[in-house]
Amino acid sequence: MEQTIKFTKKNTLAVKGIAISFLLCYHCFSQTARMGGAEVSFWPLPQNLAMLISLCMVHCVGMFAFLSVYGLTLSMKSKYPEYDFDGHTATFCLF
Hints:
Elements: H1 9-29, H2 47-56, H3 60-79
Helix pairs in contact: 1-2, 1-3
């Protein structure tokens, strides 16, 4: 029995929530200057490790870009089923 996995709109929203958490961590905790002199506890992690992890969360932008393109591709496929849309080519109409 073959089982297919679908990445639904609900799944996309969940991953967008994770990406927003990444965005907040990156923008608030990746550099000491961004904390505005506030005392921040990163317990149970040491501050330098927590800040390094926050710095790696810059990938939130890529996550949003991927999710947007994925959603647009599925939307195009459902809106124009007769068009042989392979995902590698796209046509844009500016008027």
